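seq as requested:
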Amino acid sequence: MRKIDLIVIHCSATREDRSLTPDDLETMHRRRGFNGTGYHYYIRKDGTVHLTRPIDRIGAHARGFNTQSIGICYEGGLDCRGCPADTRTRAQWSSLWQLVNLLLEKFSGCRVCGHRDLSPDRNGNGEIEPEEWIKACPCFEVEDEFSRKR
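struct tokens:
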């Protein structure tokens, strides 16, 4: 088993008034040249969690961090106008919370962060600020949400 020290949360960048099935997600990733879905888990709007890549297989979700991380993606992340927004349903929130805590039990000491939190610190102040984000994904403050509830 590979060493895991990072859990990265993503959104699918799907409008909240549309759906994206696990098969659709896999097709999108294959079109981008990946050998299947790059995330390890995908959480649908109804809270269903899909294993989309075995954990022992390196992901394709966060360049430079894939070898030591697990990628979790939730369906959504854009409002009805296509703007970045936390569109998680109550069921998604619950499933994400349960999944992350299960993974933290198995891989203790992991950092949990959002994809945007892995953007480069361009001004060198030791903090990744909104103006430095490469993308808005996953459209909510992951580190705040998971650090205050542990």
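The CA atoms of residues 43 and 104 lie 17 Å apart.
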